[in-house]
Every structure is written in structure tokens, then in C-alpha cells.
Amino acid sequence: MRETWNRLSEKQYFRPLVIFIMILLFNGIVSKGEFFALSIVDGHLYGRIIDIVRNGSKLMILAGGMTMILATGGTDISVGSVMAISGATACSIVNGNIFPSLNGNVGAAIVIAILAGVVSGIWNGLLVAKVKIQPIVATMILMVAGRGIAQLITKGKIVTITSEAYYFINGGYVLGLPFPLFLVIILVGLLVLFTGRTAFGLFLESVGCNPTASKYVGIKVDRMLLAIYTLSGAFAAVAGLIESAGIKGADCNNAGLGIEMDAILAVAIGGTNLMGGRFSIPASVIGALIVQSITTTVLALGVPAAYIRVLKALLIIIICLSQSKQFKDLIIKRRMVNRKVVDN
């Protein structure tokens, strides 16, 4: 039993999981158990836990792609804009504003929107891998231009749609559970298998630890970076589809606004080193649930939404300190000094 516990506690996702459980327990105590209440209406499950999963689905998907990028020592601050491009593309096709020959086909709209995300990811990957622009600068280009591209697609208007098939992406249920949850399970599950069961995961860590040495041992670093940013773009496109289906339209100005910071925060909470190296996609997904549960908790307690950003800022400070070698050394030195004083 003790050996099993020790093995479990050594997993990277252990600490984020404990934090998530503590947040849930806090909500349960404060709400006197109502937080965990579930109801079934027309065969569909409803409750705050379900809301956290549904509302956090976009962030969990983004965290999967962002984990790989941060594991290489890079970053992608354009995912919010890619979400806007994806949503604008899909809704404009369903509405018939672009590609009218498709007659608003939802399947075609989804495929083309994801392809738009892939192209966006390739663009970022080329700038980082081939042009050698710093990742934060390279992705900032699309972050700024992306919403302009989305505005061009929608002709500067908020596009609304009336398609039950498209609404299903966010509001649909399968086996009583929200459909976005299954998208998370499929996409993140495939990503976990791909990085855990193939050499790709090892190559990814190697590139993050030392890209120069990785290149000398035969790893195609440029191809790795291009593939990773492309995957991130595709994942951001799926997140954009979920968001646009939720609001039943495309709002280029607000879609995915600021979510790139939440994605980075989720990955950091999951314990991935922001300088590159060791990573854990399951831990990042739990980090995304923590970020979403904090938002839900604050709103449920009736605290003004402005405090959510303050809480997230405090989390960032704590995470940065926990990853700082100098801070850890300072704490250790102070403990040693205190012990000597007590012994004397």
C-alpha cells in the first residue's frame, strides 16, 4: 500500500490533482453539499461539476497543445486569435456568407475551420523553426493579425447561425454527458498515447532540454517544432468551434480573448517547466480544470468577476516562486539557520 502511494505521489499530476480535489471539497463545504448535486433532465446530467467540465473543455484542449509547445521552451500566445478565425470560418460557412455552394454544410464547415487552424499553426511553426524568430514574437504576429483576419472573414459583423447540428458541438449530449467532454477525451487521449507510447515524447523533452544537442544526435528539431505548432493550431481551432457553438455565432472581438494566458497558467499549474523539458499532458488538463473551478468558485460565491484575475495573478506568482531555484535555495538556507538556532 505504501509503495503504491509513493509511486502515485511521484507522478507529475499528483499535486495538481490534490489541489483540484481540495477546491472541490471547499466548494462542497461552503455550499453545504449543493455543489455536488446532480440532476437528470431528459436523460441529461446537470450540475456545477458538469458545468466545470463543459466550460473547461476549451481550456483542456488548448492545454494539451500548449503543453507540447512549452515543453520545447517556446510559447503560443496566438491560440485565442486562432479560435476567433476558426469560429468565424465555420459560422460564415454555415450561414452561407462564404462558400455558398456548400449550402451551409456543417461537416464541411468544421473541416475547413480546422484546416484554417492547421494553416495558422504551420505559419507559427515556420516563423519559429525556419525563420528563427523567438516564439513569443512569432506568435504575437498572429495574435494581433488573427482577429483582423477573422473580421475580414465575417466582414466586420457578428455572425449568428441557426443550426441545431452546429449547436451540438457545445450543447449536445452523448450518454447523458456533454459532447465537449468526449472531444477532450478523444483529442487529449490520442495526444497522451502519441507522446507516451512513441519516441515523439522523448524527442520533445530532449528538444526542450537542449535543442543543440538534440540536433547533433539526429533529432529533426525544425520538423518537431513545425509539427508541434501545427498541432497547437488544430487544437485551438477545435476550441474555437466549441466556443462559437456555445454562443451560437462568431464574435471576432471576444472569442478566445485572453484564453492563451489561462492555457499557459494551466500548463504551469500542471508542473511543466516553462523553460522546456519535462512535461505531463494529464497534469496540464487537471491544471485547466483547476483554473476553471476557480472561476466557477468565485462566481458561485458572488465575488465580483474582477477578482478572478487577481487570484490568477497570485497563482502565477506562486508557480514562478515554486520553479525558482534561487527561491528554493533561500528557503532551504533559512530552514538550516532556524534549525541551528533551535539546536543552540
* Helix run count: 15
Largest sheet: 2 strands, antiparallel
The helix-and-strand class reads: mainly alpha
Strand order of the largest sheet: 1-2
Helix content: over 70%
The number of E-state strands comes to 6
Task: Walk me through what this model shows.
The protein has 344 residues and is mainly alpha-helical. Helices cover 72% and strands 4% of the residues. Helix 4 packs across helix 11, helix 12 (259-269) packs across helix 13 (281-300) and helix 12 runs parallel beside helix 14. The longest helix is centred in the last third of the chain and has 27 residues, at 221-247. The protein is globular. The mean pLDDT is 86.
Short description:
The chain has 344 residues and is mostly helical. Helices cover 72% and strands 4% of the residues.
Write the layout of secondary structure elements.
Blueprint: H1 2-9, H2 14-30, E1 39-41, E2 44-46, H3 48-71, H4 79-95, H5 106-129, H6 135-154, E3 159-160, H7 164-171, E4 173-174, E5 177-178, H8 179-197, H9 200-209, H10 211-216, H11 221-247, E6 249-250, H12 259-269, H13 281-300, H14 306-322, H15 325-343
Antiparallel strand pairs: 1-2, 3-6, 4-5
